[in-house]
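Final report, closing paragraph on structural work. Over the funding period we assembled a curated collection of sequence-structure pairs, and we close with a single example.
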Amino acid sequence: MYRDTLSLLGPVLPAVSFLGRLPTAMCQLGSLLLVAGTSGSLAAAGLVAGALAAGQTVAGPLVGRLADRHGQRRVVLAASLANAAAVTALVLAALGDAATALLVPLGALAGATVPQVGPLARTRSVTLARRAGADDRTVATVLSFEGTLDEVSFVLGPALVGLAASVAHPSAALLTATALLASCGTAFALHPTARSAAVSKPTRSSAAERTRLPAATYALRGTMVLQGAMFGASQAGITALTGRLGVPDQAGLVYAAMGVTSAAAGFAMAAVPARIGLTTRWRAATAVLVVLAAPLVLVDTLGWLYAGVLVLGVAYAPHLITVFGLTERTAPSARLAECMAFLTSGVVGGQALALAVSGRLAETHGAPAAFGVAAGAAVACAALSWAVRFPRTQDAEPAGVRPAAAAPSV
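Its predicted structure, as stored:
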């Protein structure tokens, strides 16, 4: 099933892109634990981690746009080295007991310079597949493969941070992240596929194409913000419930369990028959999100919590992968990296915002309030999936070749 994908990408590109994604998954939790440990203030740690998320949310699409216009090689190389330097500066400042007023902008800089390896790897892989003449089923398999790498990185990254914090110090995790950024980010930037997937020379038509995005592109971004809100609210609910049950150390394991089932479901997405279109998949995935998120409001034991998040994870990756697939079909090819980066930034921004809001709700009203936010976000995702109308040809035509009349609408 994935043999054609590996033949297309080769063994090195997936490996360096996966290792290049890990720092992004490590830095959020790592910065939180580092500042909390060195300053003794959870409020300061939250501000720094929030600034990091805000920097990534705002600057991520800009990195994607630069990659669209100037190619991935120079952009990823510069961002990887800048991000490694920014994270190192944050670690040194925290260890030096710097004031929060300095740590917050350093956190924002660390977030703003994230090289966006995940969305750019996805863009590169899809571009290579299209240029090789791959059919839509192969492109869908590529997206499933990339989605699985994302899910595994976001499970493994926090786990590595927790291990480093317990064995040594949170700074060890962040310094490991800088080493991965400097080495694997550079390797991803200099890989030969960066040149083969480079943007073509701009023309008048491509310049005009950059200014136009179908309305559905913005709806797809919105659903990713809501997906991020589900992540953040679920994290707050899990933390609150495990704390109330007297097993706070189980929170990370519960969240990781959800990531494992999500990654498994994403890997299996390549087996979905091609006759089931992307629009149908999107609506089905959001319906499953609603059905599986609602029962969490009633969970009050650790066993049922594990069961609830395990089954909920099954719906996460299919929703994410399908939205990436619809974006690949909908967005102009000249802005594909930018749109992919927007989706990832939307998840990060939605997660950070929901975590702040639902965390406060969980403190005052308990875990059901946070899980209620997650269920509400799932309902909004489902409503949005039915509000967008795609033409019947949408599931059959690749990105950038549809006539203007075929643009989807909301």
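Residues 202-206, 393-410 have pLDDT under 50 and may be disordered. The first helix runs from residue 3 to 9. We thank the funder for supporting this effort.
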